[in-house]
TrEMBL record:
Organism: Massilia aerilata
Lineage: Bacteria, Pseudomonadati, Pseudomonadota, Betaproteobacteria, Burkholderiales
Signal peptide: 1-21
Pfam families named among the record's database cross-references: ANAPC5, GGDEF
Any one Gene Ontology molecular-function term assigned to this protein's record: diguanylate cyclase activity
InterPro entries: Apc5_dom, Diguanylate_Cyclase, GGDEF_dom, Nucleotide_cyclase, Rev_trsase/Diguanyl_cyclase, TPR-like_helical_dom_sf
EC number: 2.7.7.65
Record Gene3D superfamilies: 3.30.70.270, Tetratricopeptide repeat domain (1.25.40.10)
Domain GGDEF: 494-631
Name of the molecule in the record: diguanylate cyclase
Superkingdom as given in the UniProt entry: Bacteria
Alphabetized PANTHER family for the sequence: DIGUANYLATE CYCLASE DGCM-RELATED, REGULATORY COMPONENTS OF SENSORY TRANSDUCTION SYSTEM
Keyword Hydrolase: no
Matches recorded under NCBIfam families: GGDEF
Amino acid sequence: MIVRRFLFGLLFLCWTALAHAGTDQDDFMHALATAREEAYVTPSAALAKLDQLKEGRSGQELGHLLVETSRANFWLGKKQEALAAALDAEKLGRESHDDVLLAKAMLSHGLVLSRLVHDQDAARKLIANAAALAETTEDIHLKTRALVAQGLLADQEGRSDDALDYVEQAAGLARSGADPDALAMALREQARLMAVVGDAAPALKLADELLAIARSRGIPAQLAHARLIEYATAAHAGNPRRAEKALQSAVDILEQLDARERLAVPLANLAELYVQSRRFGEAARTSEAALRIAREVGDENGARLASYELGLSYIYFRNVAQGRQMVDTALDGLKDDERYVRMLLDYGHALNQVGWGDVALTVYEKAGSVSLAAWRKEKQLSYQALQRAYAYQKKQAELTAAHHESQLKAAELTTVKRLRTLWVALSVTTLVAVLLIALLYGRVKKANRTLKVKNEQLFHQSTRDSLTGLFNRHYFYEHVVPRYHENPGRDGKAGGVFLLMDVDHFKSINDRFGHSAGDVVLKNVAARLAASLREQDVLIRWGGEEFLAYLPGVALDEARQLCARLLAAVCGSSIAAEGQQLTVSVSIGFCPRPLANVDGGPDWEKLVHLADLCLYLAKTAGRNQAFGVADANALTPAAIAAADADLGQASADGLVDLVNVKTVQ
């Protein structure tokens, strides 16, 4: 009986010890997973948590903690600390013969070499070795991380197709292994890359899947990261409303987590969205907060982005001198940013909006030269890579030929059979060299096709409005203005007409039915205007709810008829938006260009300005109508000055002859 009780007691103690050990291990793995997700969003807090977890740990557990310590230091930009932690983890992985730990440490090491040390060759070799080692294990999270790391490296080297292949494989593997954290890691990069190459709809679906995983996991840092990816995806997809909502949610979570080292850039991006929607007061306040936080935590990139957005806000508030100084200083440090060209275009647009057209044109020219230089550099790098590969193959062929030549001489002294064998080997080597050259030539063709597609995409993005699909101001300055000067009107013939159109009561549409309804209205109005114009006419989204049309070779009578058609086309039928049937109209101001035989006539900027004054007159006269200048040849400097002061009075005084067009009933 005593022996039996003793045995039962011993079994109970063993079971209790095992149960507590399992609980401790589960707690450790959960804490490690949480710290891994927090490393990107709150790296300083993650480091503090990892330091606490290291107490009393050794061997493999310590090694896994060191891997995440390396990643947290990486996101803080601490190169030496990140390298030291990765190397220590590698050492523990080799000592304990733990391939999973070793491969994870090598991936962290490779990430640091690639992004912070900029040693791409060493990083590529290290990541490839880690991926091969990962394939020998059953760890789904490790295999997924290896594929994602290869995708990130390919993306950094400009191999977009390879990058997408890697992250797609990673997502498929994570799904098959039912590992939500691994899947979230893969989906973040897959959604981002697909949005960048223009696959908007699939990218947004991936973002939805990522958000569902983050919510189910209940880790705030993971949800913040998912929201940031959703913002980037929606922004690339041309969905500003969803982008703003996602970014605001991410900022709220980051503020709750007190993630100040990660907060400046999202706030600056939020200010950018406010500028795009012309909410300049919110943009200024948000960018000021971003700049303050960036300076507190030493985030130089965040400070530049915030200064750029704050400078744009100042420009729109007519504080142009201070705004230009801030924007110019910020852009000097943002030349390596992938959005640099778009920033220049936005800068030029802001200057043009406040009447600084000459400076804006200089900025647009700079954006075009930077885009062209980037394209040429990419093409040059492709050819340089090809030349290096060809030189390497040529050198290898020469070494092989020299080696076989020595074998040939030896064969001549021995047997004819050896000689024949040598010639066969040389023929095979030559054939391999020919095949390699053909392969390299194929890669050059592929690189040229890719460069052509990218150049076309860049042209489309820089000349088209993302919402309506119409041409934008950049296209007008680059392609319409030169043609305007090169093709003046002929004697006795019409020189053309500028029409400036504005959607009536558009602000009330946004206020009552939301910005999505306003976007639907703008798309429909743009389509109706475009359908009413000729093929040779140019229709441009001038800004906000304004549209500019240039009609070459159109006389006054034709312009009046066209205005009547445009007014009827817009208000002729209602527009369905957000469950409502909205009746929309436009007001129009127009001004013809003088004939070529008129000396000292106004340039196109004066004509557009006069069209703008006529548009304002149409608005004040009740909207849904057009006012225009009847005779551009009579526009003397005195008449233009009088129109600037008061167009209605100038018309009453007989200095400017105006015509009025109402909707065709």
